[in-house]
Write a structure and sequence with these properties.
Blueprint: H1 14-77, H2 81-87, E1 91-102, E2 105-117, H3 126-136, H4 146-230, H5 233-270
Antiparallel strand pairs: 1-2
Length: 272
Amino acid sequence: MSSSGQREAVFATRQTLGNTKLRLKGAQNGHSLLKRKADALSKRFRTITSKIQDAKQQMGKVLQLASFSMVEVSYATGDIGYAVRENVKHATFRVRARQENISGVHLPSFAIQAGAGDGSGADESSEGRESAASQEFSLTGLSRGGQQVQKARDTYRKALKVLVDLASLQTAFVILDEVIRLTNRRVNAIEHVIIPRLENTIAYIVSELDEMDREEFFRLKKVQGKKKNIAPEPSSQSEPQTVQSTDAAAAVEAQAGSGDMVSAGKDADVIF
């Protein structure tokens, strides 16, 4: 529970308590899923980082060899730029893009398709396109330096493949970096803001409900005490009435007794 004690402004009822507990459970499940997603993305991010380092080292070596081979071609045959432009009729390579799903994140991946052709022969096999592409440079360096030209061509083919792989890795690196930051912000928000706020709200509702139960119990005790104090009053009021009725009966009897005595005296006087 956070030290700030922030909570939601809710009315303390048992229904609100149940809904808040359900929200807390959902937040905990979401935090667990996002945490596992962040871990999976971080693992893939580290793998891509190591691959980028290897690709950069390989790229440096391949470009160095390509530069040396081009220098050899220039030394052996001179400028062959015009001859290359004349022989190349179509694109030799085609870059194809596909997507890779990593924990819900779509990462682009690029691959080279050799021998692209003019687009009309899209159904041709890769071997046929490869042979067609090699035939385009069959006359380049025919007079001199043919071996150096072929070597430079193969070297630049390798450099192009490494360059495309490096571009794919760097694109995935940038996307994963942004997604990992966003996921970590969500994980921290749920862990340090949402879950403590819901826990504080639940604690507040529980304390309010307990206070209401104590107030209700105290009220019932007071009502029962008042009922016990009011119940004996009718019996205490009936006792004086009973005493008064007893006194009245005794007075009547006394009067009756005195009357008998008078009558008895008179009879005694009358009888001679």
